[in-house]
Amino acid sequence: MQPAARAELVALDRRHVWHPYTSADVWEQTEPLVITRADGARLFDADGTSYLDGNASWWTASLGHGHPRVLRALAAQASTLAHCALAGITHEPAARLAAELSAVAPSGLNRVFYTDNGSTAIECAVKMAIQAHAQRGEPQRTRFVALDGAFHGDTVGAASLGGVEVFRRPFAGVLFDCVRAPSPAEGGHARAFEAIEALVRDDPGSVAAVVVEPIVQGAAGMQIYAPDYLKALAALTRDVGALLVVDEVFTGFGRTGPMWATEHAGVSPDLMCVGKALAYPIPMGAVLATDAVFDAFRGPKDRALMYGHTFCGNPLGAAIAREVLAVYRDEAVLAGVAAKAPAIAQAVASLGAEPHVTGTRSLGMIGAVDLRPDAGGASGYLGARGWRVFEHARRRGVYLRPLGDTVYVCPPLTIGAGDLDTLLEVMCDGVRAVA
Ligand SMILES: Cc1ncc(COP(=O)(O)O)c(C=O)c1O
Hints:
39% of the residues lie in helices and 16% in strands. It is an alpha/beta fold. The structure holds pyridoxal-5'-phosphate (PLP).
């Protein structure tokens, strides 16, 4: 693209586009990337520069960009049935995908409700839990328990469960009340479990569900906790008759090693939310439910789940998701994760002794490094130091968007070994450079 055409796009964007989580004033001072195409683990700017996609485009492109089988599935589905409603109708992609997802999910999750994305999967799970309890004769079960540092999306219901203060603060007046338990990633998981158990047992008959990101709290800064916590939580929810909802929107599809992070703990939840990599590049989510939850909606018409989205079960997304599952099988994607994870673990651990590094951790295809906030400056998600690593990486052809002062890699699972080495080297150099 000619420089003038590129500049025109930037001008149009600055005039009209409202960007997510972005201060307009900061944006107007930023020279943006203008991405024209993406291939594998790389994004290509209109000026000809390529960038390694260090976060798999907000944690979605687990098979990389433009996987040929995914593109073929998209084209084939688009040429026959691009969309029809799922109300009173079924179609092959929706029916077969539901069966195939159930087959690979933790045991017992035999029912699939389709949504538009991760946030709406969470919204749906919240409503399923409330209506299911009410229809089983426990209408008083309306309270949700969620963790400090949790992130479950940005719709009002999902944000009510969220525990990252900076995302909650502007909307605090309208979010629904939620019982907030300490994160098991901080201060020891055994202590955190004692705390959540006390909160749940305080009034166990009022709890509709406990909602957690299994093993990794992504938006909190890739905080990792022990599987024993999740195992104990599953036993606790079962004991008090509450539902366990696991949010695998980020952690699913092999990000942490196994297909589902829940597998680290060997538990089966009542509801499981998926999204992101499920049907990349089509936005799609789903809630997988047990037959026991599903059966609470049997009976006359007014017992149906009163929930649905216009595009739910979209055939393009469903056809892609089927192909995604097939590629995971045929190309041994999870074995690739096991082979590559040690390089990530080693790279982040090598930064542990840097004076301005306050923590490092890794799991599967996730590696994170916490930087000490600038003296007197903002910290956490609003911290500035991680953005200096971002600028350093950008100059070296790597897109490394931080979570404030937490710098992390979360690349396509299929990234080649050479590209992974480059990504890690640039991250390590960047972290050292901002000392
Ligand atoms: C764990 C988790 N749940 C839910 C969501 C929301 O997904 P979406 O942005 O597709 O609505 C996210 C998004 O990052 C997430 O990380």
